[in-house]
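[recover] target loaded
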């Protein structure tokens, strides 16, 4: 069975946007897999000890780290399962959404940096605080408090592109979700899973309904 090493906080919380991308891709492909909760401080213990980040997918003794490389592997190895791209154009769309979603990450990090810390397993908290405060040059609570509203406004402005698109299409991929949808969903699920203040209802109605439909389809919940 495929093994998927996923970043997990306390109470088995999966919050990494990249892990969510791959998790949804596997569910879409209807391929059996075992999700293995992995703390930040446990990543170096993943077989071979060569990885510095998750997700890591192990399939028939092949270990793959990059999320886009993982889905390319799934498309190639399981061609009879539902496609993640549907066409070369669908793959190109996914690459565009990947680049666009990256522009959201800075805003989300500023909105939830302290909340993420509170969601972590105890053994990860010191590592996370030390590394992130060294990067930002300020404590986590101050980063979030000082930047939350500005970052939220910026995020919602960027999401207006998705909002407008979803008024004309049920999913980014068209009538059914494709990997492009999973990329965008994973990024927003990172925010929803960790934030103590931001909720799905803070999205525009088209984005909210799209988000809920994907969660119902693949996770069986709102």
């Amino acid at each position: 069975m495929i093994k998927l090493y996923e970043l997990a906080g306390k109470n088995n919380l999966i919050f990494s946007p990249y892990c969510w991308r791959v998790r949804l891709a596997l569910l879409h492909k209807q391929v059996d897999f075992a999700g293995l909760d992995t703390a930040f401080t446990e990543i170096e213990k993943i077989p071979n000890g060569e990885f510095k980040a998750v997700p890591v997918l192990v399939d028939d003794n092949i270990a793959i780290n990059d999320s886009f490389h993982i889905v390319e592997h799934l498309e190639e190895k399981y061609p009879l399962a539902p496609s993640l791209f549907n066409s070369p154009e669908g793959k190109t769309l996914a690459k565009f959404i990947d680049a666009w979603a990256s522009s959201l990450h800075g805003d989300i990090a500023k909105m939830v940096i302290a909340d993420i810390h509170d969601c972590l397993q105890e053994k990860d908290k010191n590592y996370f605080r030390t590394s992130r405060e060294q990067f930002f040059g300020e404590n986590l609570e101050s980063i979030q408090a000082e930047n939350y509203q500005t970052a939220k406004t910026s995020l919602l402005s960027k999401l207006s592109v998705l909002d407008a698109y979803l008024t004309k299409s049920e999913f980014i991929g068209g009538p059914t979700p494709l990997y492009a949808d999973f990329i965008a969903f994973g990024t927003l699920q990172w925010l929803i899973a960790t934030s103590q203040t931001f909720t799905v209802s803070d999205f525009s109605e088209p984005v909210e309904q799209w988000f809920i439909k994907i969660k119902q389809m693949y996770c069986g919940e709102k």
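[recover] notes: The helical segments are 17-29, 67-77, 88-119, 122-136, 140-166, 179-194, 205-219.
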